[in-house]
Design brief:
It comes from Draconibacterium orientale. One of its GO terms (cellular component) is plasma membrane light-harvesting complex. This is PRC-barrel domain-containing protein. The protein is α+β, with helices and mostly antiparallel strands. The protein is built from 7 helices and 15 strands. Strands 1, 10, 11, 12, 13, 14 and 15 form a 7-stranded mixed sheet that branches. Strands 2, 3, 4, 5, 6 and 9 form a 6-stranded mixed sheet that branches. The protein has a two-stranded antiparallel sheet with strand order 7-8. It is globular and about 50 Å long.
Length: about 260
């Protein structure tokens, strides 16, 4: 009986561990000493496809006050209350290094943030590619109260991406361009991005949303505002359909990886 219970628990956990980033935007944050602010965006590392920062808005309707909180301080979310627990006080968050979202976020700023929060080994220190010595720049989503700048691909030297920025990026398949990125699906136990959702809205009458493993993305291009995907248009169209009202469970994952012939 105990073995059966443990098995059931694992099955339940496999269902609830996969979360849509689109649905998490707007969640409240609950600091150690109270609740204030909303989740505005997620920043992830394209090299490892792991969430690195949560962008939190502590401002009001009339004035934004957006800050980045390192993923290290994310506690256990309350999914029923749609609340993120953050292991910091509101004062800690508000006093973090100033950041203008009208300007790129540099590695220098990331270092200041790591120093402020006492993070001894920031994520980029464990990535050997980060020791090139070059100044790394991250271009966030559309700036608040600022016109969008023209971004050249050669000016971008970073693996950090904004969910709000790539949401809506077009899909460049191996034989055609169509549809766009609609969502990213994470494992809430380690904030690893596992899947992305493609809205095939310009394939009428076959228009639908399909879910794909993140490994099939070859590159994200800011200048072209697209994701290059190592699949044909037909293969993408025939991928498992995504229903936001249904959990991404073990059965669907088996279908995905049987289909792609990759990890299980």
């Amino acid at each position: 009986m105990e073995i059966a219970c443990n098995s059931a628990h694992k099955n339940i956990k496999s269902v609830i561990m996969k979360r849509s980033l689109r649905e998490l935007i707007g969640y409240s944050i609950k600091a150690k000493n109270g609740e204030e602010g909303k989740v505005n965006d997620f920043l992830f590392d394209e090299k490892s496809w792991i969430i690195r920062y949560v962008e939190v808005d502590l401002g009001s309707f009339f004035k934004a006050n957006r800050v980045l909180v390192p993923y290290n301080f994310l506690g256990e979310p309350d999914w029923d209350e749609k609340t993120f627990k953050i292991n910091l006080s509101i004062d800690n968050i508000k006093r973090s290094p100033n950041l203008s979202f009208d300007m790129p976020v540099s590695r220098i700023y990331e270092r200041k943030l790591a120093d402020y929060y006492g993070i001894k080994y920031p994520y980029w220190m464990v990535d050997s590619a980060a020791f090139a010595g070059n100044e790394v720049v991250f271009y966030p989503g559309v700036a608040f109260r600022a016109p969008r700048k023209v971004i050249k691909e050669e000016d971008i030297d970073t693996s950090l991406r904004s969910f709000n920025e790539i949401k809506g990026y077009g899909i460049n398949a191996t034989d055609d361009k169509f549809g766009h990125i609609s969502d990213l699906i994470i494992d809430d136990s380690d904030w690893q991005i596992l899947y992305f959702v493609v809205d095939t809205n310009n394939l009428f009458p076959w228009s639908k949303k399909v879910i794909l493993p993140i490994e099939v993305i070859d590159k994200i291009s800011f200048s072209e505002r697209e994701a290059r995907v190592d699949m044909t248009k037909e293969a993408i169209k025939d991928s498992p359909e995504y229903n936001p009202d249904e959990a991404v469970n073990a059965e669907l994952e088996e279908v995905l990886y049987d289909y792609r012939g990759k990890r299980k």
